[in-house]
Amino acid sequence: MKRTYQSLAACCMLLLSACYKDHGNYTYDLPEEITITGIGSDYDKVSLVDRITLDPKVSSTDPQAEFSCWWGIYETNVQGSAPKVDTIGRSKALDYLVKQPAKGWVLVFGAKNLHTGFSKIVTARVNVITQFTRGWYVMKHTGGQTDVDLFLTPSGIIGEGKMENVFSLVNGRKLDGAARLFGYYTNYKSDVTGAMANTKGLFILTDKDVSVVNMNTFKEIRGFNSLFYETPATKRPGSISEGSSANYLVNDGRLHSIYSMSANVGMFGGVQLRDDNNSPYNLADYFLTLNYYNPFFFDQSSSSFVSATGTGTVLSSVSDATGSEMSANRNNKTLLFMGIVASSPYTGVALFKDKTDAGLKILSVITPENYTLKIVNDTLDAAEKLYNAQRYGLIVTDESILYFSVGNEVWSRNLANGAERLQFTVPAGEQITFIRHRKYTGTTSTELPYYFNYMLIGTESGGQYKVRVFRKTSGNLNASPDFVLEGQGSVGDVIYIAPSMSNYTYPNSY
Amino acid sequence: MKKILTLAVLTAALAACKKDQYYLYNDIARLQFGPPIAQLYYNLADMADTLKPYTFYYEPDAVGQDTVNFDIYAIGGTSGEDRPYELEQVMMEGEENAVAGVHYKAFSDVSLKNTYVIKAGEVHAYAPVIVLRDASLKNKTVKLQLRVKANGQFQPGEIRKLWRKMELTDRLSQPAAWNNSATQYYWGKYSRVKHSFMVEQTGEKWDQEFFNEINADYALISFWRLKLRTLLTDYNNAHPGEPLTDESGETVVFP
C-alpha cells in the first residue's frame, strides 16, 4: 500500500511540472496588407526620349501607416553576373527620363510602412526601344549585294514610313551576295550593353555572307569573320536555325553550332563531323526544326537525314520509324524543299527529286520522333502544278497547306488531299522571288493593332521589289493584299519585329 | 557481484569521455599551406594546388631554372616583425624523389636565406620552390613533397594542410587542369603522345595557362574538343591501319 502511495505521489509530481502559466504574446490581428495601384505591367519607352511618369496609390490596412517609397531599375537576362538595381527615385511619384540602352529592364517600386516596418514591392517590365525595334524588315539584294529596308509601323501593322538600306546606313557596308534568310533570336549572347547578356539578335543571311545585328540599334554584333571560333575558308551560308537548345548555322553545306543552355559569347564552333571517319557531307539549305525538338538536316551527298545537338562533335544518325515509306538514309534523293508545317505533332514537309530518275518527284510528310523519321510519300504527277514549282512557302503551324509559285502564278496545295488551287497571278513582267507565311498573335492589349496572319508574296521587276501582304481565309488568299511593301532590289526574306517578340514567335523555316 | 560489475562498466564508459584537442589558433603562431588568396573563402578550393606539375618543355634552352610558388598562410594573427619559416622535403616511398641541388634548390640554400619569410603585418606569402633544369629531366619526371617544419616562429597548423607536392620534368607533362573531370568529359586519358599531338597539330601550348583560358568558356572547350577529334580522325585516315598510339600502346582517342 505504501508503495502505491509513493508511486502516486511521484506521478503527481511529474504531472505538476506540466502546469505552467502561458506567457505567450499571441496577437489575433489580421496581417497588414499594403496595396499599390497605378503601375502597369509593361512599358515601351524610347531611350533618351521617353519618360516614365507614375504616381501610384499606396494604401494599407494599418490606419497609422506612413510610407517611405523608392524606385529602381535593373537589367534582365544577364549572363555570369547578378544584375544591380539602380535607384532612380526616392519619393512616391516618379518622373524619370529613360537613359538605359535598348533591351529589357525591370522597374521596381518599393513602399515601406514606417509604422510597422512592412514593405511591398511591385515590378513592371520596361522594354527600352528604338526606331529599330518595331517594323517590317525587308531583306533585298541588288547588284550582287544585300541590304535591309525598314517599314515603320508606329500605329498599326501597316507600314507608314520607310527607312531604306538600314544595314549599310548603320554599319557602313552592304553584305555580299543574294538575300536569303532572316533569323531572330532573343537569347543570342553578346556584351553590347557592357555585360554578357541575352541580346535581341537578327541574323541576316545571304548566299555569300552573314551578319548578326543588335535589333535595338541595327549595329553589327558579329560578321562572318568574327562569328566562328575558326573562320571557315568558304563563305556560303545555307541556313540559320534553332533546335534542341542550340543555334545551328549551315555554311558550305556543313554544320556549326552554339549550345545556348550554357554560357557562351555568341560564336559558333567548328564543323561537326559527319561520322567517326570524318566523311564528307553537304547539307541542303532547307531544314526541319522546332524549338526544343531535334533539328533535322538532309545530306545531299549521301541522300540521308541527319540530326545534331549543340554539344556533340558528330552529327546524329537518323533511323526509320515504323510505317515509314522511304528510308531516311541513302534514299537516292535530292532535297528540293523542306520546312515545318505543324508543331503538334511536330511535322514537316519535304519535296524530293530522285537522283537516278530525274522525272521522279516525291512530296513527303515527315513526322519526327526523337531520332526516327516516319516518311509518308506522295509521288507527284508531271501534270500537277507542284511538279514544276520554283518557290515554296508553307503555312507554318496554321493550316496544312503548301504555297508555291509556277511562273507568275501562286498556287496552294492542300497537303491532306493534294488539291491544288490558283491563289494569285502577279502582273506580267514581275518575277516571283519569295513566298513566306508570317504570323504574330497574342493577347497583350497594347499589341492588338500589330497582330497579324499574313502570306507574303515578293516579286521583282525592273530592279524594284513589291511584297504583297495578303490576309488569308481558310488557307486561301484574299482577293487583294492588305498592303504592299515596295522598294529597290529583289526580296529574299521579310520579317516583322516587335519589342515583345521572342525567338519562338516565328517557327524556324525557309 | 552484480553491483561491482555495473560499477566497472560505468567506470569504463566514463573513460571514453575526453575533451577533443581542437586548435583554437589563439595559443601560438602556426603555419600551413592554403589555396590562392582569391579562393580563400571558397570551401571547394580548400585543397586546391596541393599538386603542381611543372615542365621546362615550353621554355627556351637558355632557361636553367624557374620558380614555382605555393600559397602559405600564418595562423594566429600578424606580427610587427618579419617571421622566417622553414620547409623540408619529405621522401616519398616508391617514387623518384627530386634531389636537392640537382632538381631544386635546397630550402636551406644560402641564396634563399631571406626568402622564406612572412612579412611584418602580413599573414600570407608565396613559398617559392626554385626548380632546376637538370639534363636528367629530359627523360624522367621527379616528385618533390615539401612540408612545413616547426621553428622558433611557427608551429605546424592543420595536419592536412602542411604539405604540397610537385612533379618536375623537362618533357610534356599532364597539366593540373587536365584533372579527373577534364579526363572524363573533355580530353580523355592523358598520354604524352596525345599531349604532343595536341601541341603539334594546333600550335597551342596546351599548358596550364591555356587550359585555364579555355576552361572559362564552355563553348571554347567544345570547339577544341571538336577540333582535336577532327584532327585525330584525319590523322588516322591518313595512316590506315596505324592509328595514333600512345606510349603505353593504347590507341589515342578523344571522347
Please, could you describe this protein's structure?
The complex is a heterodimer of chains A (510) and B (255). In chain A, 4% of the residues lie in helices and 49% in strands. In chain A, a hairpin with a 3-residue loop joins strand 15 and strand 16 (210-214). A five-stranded mixed beta sheet of chain A has the order 2-9-8-5-6, with no helix packed on it. In chain A, strands 10, 11, 12, 13 and 39 form a five-stranded antiparallel beta sheet that branches. Chain A has a five-stranded mixed beta sheet with strand order 25-29-28-27-26, with no helix packed on it. Chain B has two domains: 30-169, Immunoglobulin-like (Sandwich); 180-238, no CATH class. In chain B, 24% of the residues lie in helices and 22% in strands. Chain B contains five helices and ten strands. In chain B, the strands form three sheets. Chain B has a four-stranded mixed beta sheet, with no helix packed on it. A four-stranded mixed beta sheet of chain B has the order 2-10-8-5, with no helix packed on it. Chain B is globular, with a radius of gyration of 24 Å. The model of chain B has no long low-confidence stretch (mean pLDDT 90). The A-B interface holds A 229-230, 258-259, 262-265, 267, 269-273, 276-278, 311, 313-314 and B 217-220, 222-223, 225-227, 229-230, 233-234, 237.
How are the SSEs placed, and which strands pair?
The complex is a heterodimer of chains A (510) and B (255).
Chain A: H1 2-16, E1 34-37, E2 42-46, E3 51-54, E4 57-60, E5 67-75, E6 86-89, E7 94-97, E8 104-113, E9 119-129, E10 135-142, E11 145-152, E12 161-163, H2 166-171, E13 175-176, E14 179-190, E15 197-206, E16 210-214, E17 220-223, E18 237-243, E19 246-251, E20 254-259, E21 283-288, E22 296-299, E23 304-307, E24 316-317, E25 319-320, E26 333-343, E27 346-354, E28 361-369, E29 372-379, E30 391-394, E31 401-406, E32 409-414, E33 420-425, E34 431-440, E35 452-461, E36 464-473, E37 476-477, E38 483-488, E39 490-497
Parallel strand pairs in A: 2-9, 25-29
Antiparallel strand pairs in A: 1-4, 3-7, 5-6, 5-8, 8-9, 10-11, 10-39, 11-12, 11-13, 14-15, 15-16, 16-17, 18-19, 19-20, 21-22, 22-23, 23-24, 26-27, 27-28, 28-29, 30-31, 31-32, 32-33, 34-35, 35-36, 36-37, 36-38
Chain B: H1 2-14, E1 30-33, E2 51-55, E3 65-75, E4 83-84, E5 86-90, E6 117-118, E7 124-132, E8 141-149, E9 155-156, E10 163-169, H2 180-187, H3 192-202, H4 208-215, H5 218-238
Parallel strand pairs in B: 1-9, 2-10
Antiparallel strand pairs in B: 1-3, 3-7, 4-6, 5-8, 8-10
